[in-house]
Design a protein that fits this description.
Layout: H1 2-23, H2 47-51, H3 85-89, E1 92-94, E2 101-103, H4 106-136
Antiparallel strand pairs: 1-2
Helix pairs in contact: 1-4
C-alpha cells in the first residue's frame, strides 16, 4: 500500500533529520510534510481493516442521501467514482435539476460506507505509526503536528 510506504520513508527521514536537529541543539527548526491518500477512493485497504467493520446490513445510511436545496452542488458527492460508472448507473437516481444523485441501492451505499470506514481506520493507523516514528526519533515533544484534510464530506 502506498500510504504504508510513504510512512515508512517518512519515519526513516525523520530519524536522519533528528540527528541534524540534535547536533544543532534544536537551533535548526524544520518543516516536514507527509501526505496520505487514504481515505480517498478507491478505498483499497488491507483486508484486516474490512474484517473489523460491521456487516453491510448493520451500517446506517446517511440522513441526507440526496442533494439538499440551498447546498452548493460541489458539497454533495455520491461516490460513484468507486466503480465503473456504467456498472453503477443502474443503482443511482440522478436529479435532472442538479446532476447529483442518490445511491438508490441501500446495500451499495452501505458497502461504500463500509470501505470508507475501513480506509479511515487504515489512515488512522498510518498517522499513529508516524507519531511513533517522531517519538522514536526523539522529536515528539518538540514537534507541532498539524493534520489537514482536503474535504471529508461523505454524502451516502
Amino acid at each position: 500500500m502506498q500510504d504504508t510506504r510513504n510512512v515508512d520513508e517518512a519515519v526513516q527521514r525523520l530519524t536522519a533529520l533528528s540527528v541534524d536537529y540534535s547536533d544543532s541543539g534544536g537551533a535548526r527548526p524544520f518543516y516536514f510534510a507527509v501526505g496520505l491518500h487514504r481515505p480517498h477512493m478507491k478505498w483499497s485497504v488491507p483486508e484486516r481493516f474490512l474484517d473489523l467493520q460491521r456487516d453491510v446490513a448493520e451500517i446506517a445510511l446517511a440522513t441526507h442521501r440526496v442533494h439538499q436545496h440551498g447546498v452548493t452542488p460541489w458539497a454533495f458527492y455520491n461516490c460513484t467514482a468507486l466503480f465503473d460508472r456504467k456498472q453503477v448507473a443502474a443503482y443511482v437516481n440522478t436529479s435532472a435539476e442538479t446532476g447529483h444523485g442518490d445511491v438508490a441501492d441501500p446495500d451499495l451505499a452501505r458497502t461504500i460506507r463500509r470501505y470508507y470506514y475501513a480506509a479511515v481506520m487504515y489512515a488512522d493507523e498510518q498517522i499513529g505509526r508516524l507519531l511513533a516514528g517522531l517519538d522514536a526519533a526523539g522529536l515528539y515533544d518538540t514537534t507541532l503536528v498539524v493534520l489537514h484534510s482536503d474535504h471529508g464530506i461523505l454524502g451516502l
